[in-house]
């Protein structure tokens, strides 16, 4: 292989730039040229493709977002869109593609691979919602952003003796809420994977209040429901003054943590190793701190679950 491509797709996540840098530098280290495809699969179809040299990825390792920009592209889900994409890649003489993104983006990589075009996926999403890998690029940074925000809210919660409901990202996956809740000593964590009854939550809040607790923090993953509605219900049922903060998009951006930069560097480099070895239809990940890879099909068929022991621990520590 003499020339490969790289794109980012789906939601941006901090560390994607570090992954792009790793792909570019590792490939060039092996004497292979790299082309950046801008705006995900949309840019692939449109031929928004430009050569990246060593310097093009300088000074990005510490930046959030993605220098290649990202997009969602319905057309790439069609046979016609995929054929157009492969035509563009062939036009530029690009012999394999590395796709950095979430599980939707992996479907795009799989579609290419099924058509005989070499493609490898690198997991980049703040949700940590891909089962085969312990962590996705961006999760650690988003988690630290959430924790910093909750620490600040906690100061106010304590000063005013209030209950705070904090809604964090996670439509289907509660990892961000779970880890943030544990790291921040939240009284209650509400995640889509675990059905905690409102009466139990109310009981716990009342118990804490009765033993003199000055404040309570409840971390809610957006997939459970609206934080605003949950806050209203809690106030009605506990009679405790309750405020709601929806953290929103501040969770997506920011300079990646050391952990995310290192993960992105390791995964990006591994993806290059695989593609240069002639592999296709694979995704890279990290399991017990080892860099691993798996077939996209197998990886995506693994049922997602959360670490229930963390949930249980959080409950035991927040009595
Ligand atoms: P996030 O986890 O941040 O949402 P994601 O990668 O899961 O990221 P999606 O919007 O699901 O984000 O997918 C990104 C893009 O991948 C889509 O806009 C589309 O271009 C491509 N894609 C998704 N599913 C398929 C599919 N079945 N076949 C081909 N391409 C797909």
TrEMBL record:
- Quote the pathway field: Carbohydrate degradation; glycolysis; D-glyceraldehyde 3-phosphate and glycerone phosphate from D-glucose: step 3/4
**One BP annotation, GO:** canonical glycolysis
Which residues does substrate bind?
A: 125-127, 162, 169-171, 222, 243, 249-252
Reaction catalyzed:
beta-D-fructose 6-phosphate + ATP = beta-D-fructose 1,6-bisphosphate + ADP + H(+)
Its main subcellular localisation, reduced to a broad class, is cytoplasm
Active site residues per record: 127 (proton acceptor)
User: Which residues make up the binding site for Mg(2+)?
Assistant: 103
Keyword list, A-Z: Allosteric enzyme, ATP-binding, Cytoplasm, Glycolysis, Kinase, Magnesium, Metal-binding, Nucleotide-binding, Transferase
Task: Describe how its activity is regulated.
Answer: Allosterically activated by ADP and other diphosphonucleosides, and allosterically inhibited by phosphoenolpyruvate.
HAMAP family, per database record: Phosphofructokinase_I_B1 (MF_00339)
Record's function text: Catalyzes the phosphorylation of D-fructose 6-phosphate to fructose 1,6-bisphosphate by ATP, the first committing step of glycolysis.
Q: How does it assemble?
A: Homotetramer.
Query: Mind telling me which PANTHER family this protein's record contains?
Result: ATP-DEPENDENT 6-PHOSPHOFRUCTOKINASE, PHOSPHOFRUCTOKINASE
Q: Which family does it belong to?
A: Belongs to the phosphofructokinase type A (PFKA) family. ATP-dependent PFK group I subfamily. Prokaryotic clade 'B1' sub-subfamily.
Name recorded for this polypeptide: ATP-dependent 6-phosphofructokinase
């Amino acid at each position: 292989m003499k020339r490969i491509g790289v794109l980012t797709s789906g939601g941006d996540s901090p560390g994607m730039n570090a992954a792009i840098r790793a792909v570019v530098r590792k490939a060039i280290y092996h004497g292979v040229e790299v082309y950046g495809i801008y705006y995900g699969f949309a840019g692939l179809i449109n031929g928004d493709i430009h050569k990246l040299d060593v310097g093009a990825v300088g000074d990005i390792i510490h930046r959030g977002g993605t220098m290649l920009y990202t997009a969602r592209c319905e057309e790439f889900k069609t046979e016609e869109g995929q054929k157009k994409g492969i035509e563009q890649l062939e036009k530029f003489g690009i012999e394999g593609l590395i796709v950095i993104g979430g599980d939707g983006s992996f479907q795009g990589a799989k579609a290419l691979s099924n058509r005989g075009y070499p493609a490898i996926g690198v997991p980049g999403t703040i949700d940590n919602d891909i089962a085969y890998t312990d962590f996705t690029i961006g999760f650690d940074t988003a988690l630290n952003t959430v924790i910093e925000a909750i620490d600040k809210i906690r100061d106010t919660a304590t000063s005013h003796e209030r209950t705070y409901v904090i809604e964090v990202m996670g439509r289907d996956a509660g990892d961000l809420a779970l880890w943030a809740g544990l790291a921040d000593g939240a009284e209650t964590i509400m995640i889509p994977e675990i059905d905690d009854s409102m009466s139990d939550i109310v009981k716990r809040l009342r118990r804490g209040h009765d033993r003199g607790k000055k404040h309570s923090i409840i971390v809610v993953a957006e997939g459970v429901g609206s934080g605003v509605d949950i806050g209203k219900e809690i106030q009605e049922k506990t009679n405790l003054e309750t405020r709601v903060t929806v953290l929103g998009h501040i969770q997506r951006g920011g300079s990646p943590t050391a952990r995310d930069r290192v993960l992105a560097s390791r995964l990006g480099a591994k993806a290059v190793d695989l593609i240069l070895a002639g592999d296709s239809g694979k995704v890279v990940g990290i399991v017990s701190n080892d860099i691993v890879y798996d077939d996209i099909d197998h990886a995506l068929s693994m049922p997602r679950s959360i670490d229930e022991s963390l949930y249980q621990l959080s409950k035991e520590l927040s009595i």
